[in-house]
Each structure stands twice: as structure tokens, then as C-alpha cells.
């Protein structure tokens, strides 16, 4: 399938107290007791156990179950003390700290991860094979390029008009059906009688299905792993695999086409989609649909998008995901003309295109393996504000070595997304989770396509080095504005500087969900 949660809005606890967060990843009652990550032992204070108080026990989430949390506060702690609140947040962060190996210990995640690998293989092979096939049938470079571009354009359609599917139906059914539909499209592509126009339409169909699949899978990760650190690391692993596909997939696809014909490669794509569907069907549990809206799909999709984007906090968090990639694609899109500008060969072009993904992978893996949840939360805003700054070195028209260093540093700055993942998942009401993740995926792909197009247009009138440096400067300014807005939405609820959640919504404190 093509690639890229209990409710996260503040809500009453079983005992009637509102839940807030001293740490972006930790929901806690105001009394100061921090429920641990599902499956983890309760944090202690001075060696003692945090007692379960109140009437009921919290339902199981993810691989483990959370202990009961009720009305009381931990012994000896003042609920109103900021230092106590922050100390508890730090304790919760340490108790919640996980590693990548812990994610693979969850059986359902292993199935999702395997399906992700197969999906990526299918996507990469189909993109290359279809582009080559269209060029061989038409001899038109324009149609060949259009075939590749069609992988971006329908994301906006699928992510807005079809997003309701992600919450309207059980997640496993949605994922399997999406894979089967893509396999069906690939089967028709394999047929020798399929004309070029039909190939392009089928390419659009697969691309329109992609955001629904990806959004549903992202939402399902929270069901499988919980909202805590396991979810963050699971998302990180899927991103690392996707970035690795950028580095290796297209080269391997080219080697494959040297051995078999493009339609034969498309037949392999059919098998990968079917394999992904089988893994998801047999390797994940059936869960009920999240949404309660029984109305028309289009109305459900659009109303969900409106609820999400009307939420001031959710809106700015999504923009923090979207803004840096919009500007960081400029050096990749203009790698060939920049190589010509500084006088390096085709090998240099490949290095320029690989540097950003290499930095991204390194940053993700370091943040996921060496930093704890509290630290990942603290670096979100500083990294988001500065991740595009290295691109401004292009103003000096650097040689290959300095350009590669700048691109690698810009890629490494994307490590801010791990902490941002947790902030976002905790803000999204459960019944909107699938639609929110689908909208996030669609926006990310669409905004990158827009960024590539704008960079190309600007390079028609300005030197490539100026365009890339301008993208870094303008992008940094945009990110600084978003960081300031993020801080404002956080302060709207009177939160601590380490807090990731808020109830502030466009000037009014209200809940998106009554749950």
C-alpha cells in the first residue's frame, strides 16, 4: 500500500478531576500522580509505590494495562507546587522511557512493520516501472514526468474527501481493502492492452487511496502501542524505513528493470500489495470503528477536517509538521541544476539528493535511542525553529562538501518530529484520530509537491543557490512564527513550559470531545 488512540484532548478522569499534562507525553491528574506508560510499572517517589486510588481501574491500552488512577494525590506532594509538578513530569518521563527493541516486542507492530516494508517495495517498484513504461509507450518526457508527479497530486483529494473512511469503518478492514484495491489497480496496469491514459488514471487512483491507508495505519499504531513512548518510537521506525527507501529503493528498482520488463515489475507490485494485505489481516486484531457518524462519507470527511483545523492547538501542531518539509525539498528538487552551477558531475547530484535523508535517518535514530521522552519534548520547538537554518549557507554558493554538511544538518533537525508526534496524538480526540492522521499525511505530501513546484518556478528567474538560501531563510521565519504560536496555545491553559497539551481553542476553553 502506498505510503506516510484514546482521546488526546483534556477530559475528565474517572474520578471527576480534569486531566492535564506536565509533560507532553504524560496525562496526569492535577494532584500530581503520573500514570505510567501502558505496561510499565508505576513511578515511585522516594522508593515507595504510587497507590491506586479511586473507584475503578483504567482500561487496557496498547500492549499493557494502566493502573487505576482516581481522585487522590500522591502522598506528601503539593498539587499547587510548580516544582513538584515538574519533578513528577520528569519521573513520568523516565518511567515511560522505551527503546526501539520494546516496539518490536509487540506482535501486532511486527505485522504492521512487515506490511510497511512490503508496501514500500510495491510503491517504489511501481513508480519506476510505470514511469519507464509510459516513456517507452509514448516517447514523451512530459508524460513520463507527469506519471511521477501524479503520485503527489491526488493526495489532497483522498486526504480531504475520503478521510472519513478512516474512522467510519474498522481499521483493519480499511487497511486490507486499501491494499486489495491497489493490487487490483496494479493488475490492470500489467495487462498489455491497457492504454496510457488508463495507466495514468490508475496511478491517480492508487495515489488517492494512499492517504487513507497511511492515516488509518498511523491511527491504528496508537491502538496497538498506546499514546506514549512506544507510539512515538513506532512512528519513528516507519519514517526511518521510508527515508531508507529514498536512498536505496530507486537504485534497486533500476537494477530490477535491467533484468525484467516494466510490466513484469508491476506484477511484483501486485504481489507486495497482496502480501501486505495478508499480513495486516492475519497479524492485527479487529477493532471497532472509532467514529459514531453514520452520515454520508463526504460530509463526515469534511466535517472532521473542519473540526480539526478549527482547533487552534491541533492546527499549529500540524503546521509544524508541514512547514519544514515544504522548504527543505528545494535543494532536492534543484539538485541537478545546482550541481551544474558549481560544476560537479552526476555522482555529485546523487550525493546532494541523499544528504538530507541521511541526516533525517541519523537524527531520528539518535533521538529515538539516546534521548528520553522528556528530552525529546524539550527539543521540539528549538529544533523546529532552526532545522532550515543550515540551508542559508547556499547564499555563499558552497562547494559539494559544505553543501552536503548543510543538508545533513537540516535533515538531522527533523528529529523534532518525535516529540511533536506525542503532542499531536494526545491532542486528537479518539473519534477523529483516523481523519486527523489522514489529513496530516495528505497535507504533508501536498505541501512538498507545492514546495517543489515553487522552487522550480523561482529557479527560472534566480540562481539556484539564491533560491535554496531563500527557502532556508523564509522557512526559518515561518517556523519561528509557528513556534511562537505553539507557545501561545500552550500558555492559554496556564501550562508549564514543558507542557505539550492545552485546552486553549481559538480564544475559548472548550473540549472537542466530551469523553
From TrEMBL:
Keyword Cell membrane: yes
Domain of life: Bacteria
Region spans: Disordered: 1-93, 491-515
Compositional bias annotation for Gly residues: 45-57
Residues passing through the membrane, by range: 111-135, 141-162, 174-191, 197-216, 237-259, 265-282, 316-336, 342-367, 379-396, 402-424, 436-455, 461-483
Subcellular location: Cell membrane
Assigned keywords, A-Z: Cell membrane, Membrane, Transmembrane, Transmembrane helix
Biased segments, Low complexity type: 58-83
Topology relative to the membrane: Multi-pass membrane protein
Pfam families: MFS_1 (PF07690)
Ranges annotated as biased composition (Basic and acidic residues): 498-515
PANTHER family from the UniProt entry: INTEGRAL MEMBRANE EFFLUX PROTEIN-RELATED (PTHR23513), STAPHYLOFERRIN A TRANSPORTER (PTHR23513:SF11)
The protein's name: MFS transporter
Amino acid at each position: 500500500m502506498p505510503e506516510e488512540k484514546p482521546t488526546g484532548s483534556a477530559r475528565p478522569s474517572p474520578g471527576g478531576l480534569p486531566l492535564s499534562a506536565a509533560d507532553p507525553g504524560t496525562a496526569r491528574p492535577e494532584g500530581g500522580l503520573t500514570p505510567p506508560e501502558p505496561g510499565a510499572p508505576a513511578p515511585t517517589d522516594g522508593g515507595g509505590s504510587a497507590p491506586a486510588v479511586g473507584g475503578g481501574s483504567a482500561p487496557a491500552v496498547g500492549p499493557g494495562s494502566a493502573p487505576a488512577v482516581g481522585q487522590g494525590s500522591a502522598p506528601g506532594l503539593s498539587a499547587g507546587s510548580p516544582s513538584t509538578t515538574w519533578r513528577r513530569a520528569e519521573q513520568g518521563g523516565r518511567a515511560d522511557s522505551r527503546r526501539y527493541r520494546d516496539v518490536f516486542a509487540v506482535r501486532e507492530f511486527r505485522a504492521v512493520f512487515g506490511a510497511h516494508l512490503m508496501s514500500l517495495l510495491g510503491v517504489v517498484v511501481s513508480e519506476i516501472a510505470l514511469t519507464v513504461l509510459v516513456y517507452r509507450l509514448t516517447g514523451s518526457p512530459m508524460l513520463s514526468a507527469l506519471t511521477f508527479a501524479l503520485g503527489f497530486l491526488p493526495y489532497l483529494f483522498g486526504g480531504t474527501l475520503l478521510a472519513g473512511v478512516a474512522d467510519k469503518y474498522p481499521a483493519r478492514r480499511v487497511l486490507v481493502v486499501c491494499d486489495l484495491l491497489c493490487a487490483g489497480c496494479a493488475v490492470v496496469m500489467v495487462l498489455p492492452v491497457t492504454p496510457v491514459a488508463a495507466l495514468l488514471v490508475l496511478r491517480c487512483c492508487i495515489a488517492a487511496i494512499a492517504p487513507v491507508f497511511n492515516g488509518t495505519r498511523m491511527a491504528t499504531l496508537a491502538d496497538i502501542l498506546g499514546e506514549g513512548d512506544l507510539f512515538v518510537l513506532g512512528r519513528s521506525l516507519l519514517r526511518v524505513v521510508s527515508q531508507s527507501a529514498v536512498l536505496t529503493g530507486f537504485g534497486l528498482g533500476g537494477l530490477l528493470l535491467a533484468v525484467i520488463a516494466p510490466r513484469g515489475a508491476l506484477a511484483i507490485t501486485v504481489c507486495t500489495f497482496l502480501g501486505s494485505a495478508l499480513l495486516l489481516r492475519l497479524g492485527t486484531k479487529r477493532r471497532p470503528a472509532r467514529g459514531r457518524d453514520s452520515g454520508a462519507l463526504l460530509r463526515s470527511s469534511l466535517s472532521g477536517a473542519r473540526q480539526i483545523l478549527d482547533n487552534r492547538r491541533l492546527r499549529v501542531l500540524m503546521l509544524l509538521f508541514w512547514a519544514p518539509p515544504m522548504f527543505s525539498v528545494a535543494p532536492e528538487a534543484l539538485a541537478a541544476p545546482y550541481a551544474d552551477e558549481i560544476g560537479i558531475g552526476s555522482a555529485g547530484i546523487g550525493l546532494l539528493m541523499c544528504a538530507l535523508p541521511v541526516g533525517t535517518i541519523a537524527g531520528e535514530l539518535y533521538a529515538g535511542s539516546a534521548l528520553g521522552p522528556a528530552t525529546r519534548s524539550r527539543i521540539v520547538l528549538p529544533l523546529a525553529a532552526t532545522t532550515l537554518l543550515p540551508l542559508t549557507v547556499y547564499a555563499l554558493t558552497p562547494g559539494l562538501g559544505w553543501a552536503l554538511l548543510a543538508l545533513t544538518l537540516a535533515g538531522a533537525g527533523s528529529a523534532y518530529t518525535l516529540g511533536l508526534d506525542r503532542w499531536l496524538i494526545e491532542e486528537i480526540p479518539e473519534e477523529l484520530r483516523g481523519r486527523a492522521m489522514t489529513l496530516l499525511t495528505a497535507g504533508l505530501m501536498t505541501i512538498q509537491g507545492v514546495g517543489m513546484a515553487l522552487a522550480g518556478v523561482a529557479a527560472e528567474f534566480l540562481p539556484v543557490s539564491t533560491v535554496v538560501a531563500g527557502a532556508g531563510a523564509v522557512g526559518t521565519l515561518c517556523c519561528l512564527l509557528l513556534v511562537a504560536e505553539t507557545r501561545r496555545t500552550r500558555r492559554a491553559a496556564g501550562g508549564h513550559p514543558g507542557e505539550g497539551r492545552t485546552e486553549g481553542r481559538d480564544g475559548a476553553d472548550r473540549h472537542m470531545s466530551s469523553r
